Amino acid sequence: MNGSQHILAAFHRHNISTVFGYPGGCIMPLYDALVDDVGVEHVLCRHEQACALAADGYARASGQLGVCIATSGPGATNLITGVANAYMDSIPLLVITGQVPSGLIGTDAFQETDILGMTLGIVKHSYLVDDPEDLPGILEEAIDLAQAGRPGPVWIDIPKDILLSEIKASAPACTEAPPADCPEIGPALAMLRSARRPLLYSGGGVSLAGAEDRFRTFAEVSGLPGVVTLKGIGNAGRNNPNDLGMLGMHGSRAANKAVDECDLLFVIGARLDDRATGKLDGFAPNARMIHIDADAAEINKLRPADLSLRGDLNAILAALTDAIAAEPLAIDAWQKQCRTWHTTGGFRAADNEEPLAPITGPAFIRQLSGITGDDTVIACDVGQHQMWVAQYYQFAHPRHHLTSGGLGTMGFGLPAAIGAQFSDRTRTVINVTGDGSFMMNAQELATIRRYNLPLKLIILDNQCLGMVRQQQELFYNNRESQIDLDDNPDFVAMARAFDIPALHIERTDQIRRGIETILAYNGPMLLHVAISREENVWPIVKAGASNKEMIDEPRKTNSRKEQVA
């Protein structure tokens, strides 16, 4: 077998059935091998960035390894943003690029770039294959490494001549993973039992560890009030009465209040990023902290932990659940207090009762949440709509909420939705986007048409870069700069140009009909939703400020502060 055939053989060994890519000169031998392979579905996106983001969405929705492929030079550099996005959110990706022939490396050959040098900071590991006989072993190592421990992208750059070379070496035998370990939980239990106001703080690490069910059982049995990061939304499910929702910059006043008042912060699979914590000096000032994380580098990185645990999260949660079930925590008063805060300071945007009134983002998302089924996957872009989804959509599972957390990549949502749809053709997948984000990867409408994906596309269109406009309004004396998008194309006509039916709505009384129409349609469909240019996301914390300094919508400032003070 030549190098290209070895790559496909590795895909088969590891049950990799879907890859996203775009061909070109130096990766062409792999594409030639694909002609004779019937076990791997190659998805042709229309831009390499979309290939990487689709592989990312596939991995998030399925819990499996995402794979993207591109050629050298611009093909490889176009992957970079998508790979950085996966790295920031710890998503397992295998990235394979072609490189110029070995003898031309370092000569500034056509479409030669030092892609490994460019990407050192956004991958777990990278390889430049310089010996054909090393390729089978590198493939095995890379596939394992991308998914082991804290997941992330691994990049293999392969010169064209090595893709064509006959290789005698075989893949090394797979080694069994060591048995899951569980550290001593006694000290953690002692801290939980001594705390009067313990708070559960969870993030995306729960789903990355495949511990969603164990976490939910632990949350229910322990009765711990809980807050979540943007990537942790859905961890507690829809019906946990102690779930306070998202904390941080656009979190609820209730969630941030609970963090401020707790005496023990029990952190699971979260890295204490600045969007969640605000100014660290003012974050959970009265609390000791237990930190459970797969990555030792995150322990004590931003805030020293009083106790840290590393090991198999499923095993840790199972042991904690059993111990607490045998001797429940005495936190009734704290639970009651947190539920009161949630009632008075949670997200409670009312639906507009005026049928002819303009559509608001929160009202639309609340109706969307109420109409869609529990198994629906929502892939968001970045901007105001992203926060409205985080605030008002009730997710039943963390893998149903796909969003760019660490990097904040506009244009993420549409390719990610494509990837999620390929992970399960029967599932309802919806891309909720804004007009600015949609235009970043609008060419992927062609991918939807090519594969007849039943994706539902919702554009919340305010004719501007809404989140930038909001920050300019609040923090830059309302000096608007380069945020107008009032020359947007006709999105309905644009969708129809790709043979995708589309519908426009602009009044409150049209919301339900619009949502039900696209959900009922047997195929892809776009819903264009006109919303006000002046609408803001509330609450908000100014970057660098403490979460205690939340700014509410002006007309509600006094009442809300009184309610949760």
How would you explain this protein's 3D organization?
- Strands 2-1-3-4-6-5 form a six-stranded parallel sheet, sandwiched between helices. The chain has a six-stranded parallel sheet with strand order 9-8-7-10-11-12, with helices on both faces. It has a six-stranded parallel sheet with strand order 14-13-15-16-18-17, sandwiched between helices.
- Helix 3 runs parallel beside helix 4, helix 11 packs antiparallel against helix 14 and helix 14 packs antiparallel against helix 23.
- With 565 residues, the chain is an alpha/beta fold.
- About 1% of the residues have low confidence.
- The chain folds into three domains: 162 residues, Thiamin diphosphate (ThDP)-binding fold, Pyr/PP domains (Rossmann fold, 3-Layer(aba) Sandwich); 160 residues, TPP-binding domain (Rossmann fold); 174 residues, Rossmann fold.
- 38% of the residues lie in helices and 15% in strands.
Describe the structure using short key phrases.
six-stranded parallel beta sheet; Rossmann fold; 3 domains; 565 residues; alpha/beta
Structural class comes to alpha/beta
Helix content: 25-40%
Predict the CATH topology of the largest domain.
Answer: Rossmann fold
Instruction: Give the number of DSSP strands.
Output: 18
Strand order of the largest sheet: 2-1-3-4-6-5
CATH first level of the largest domain: Alpha Beta
Count of helical segments? 23
Based on Cα principal axes, name the global outline. Answer: globular
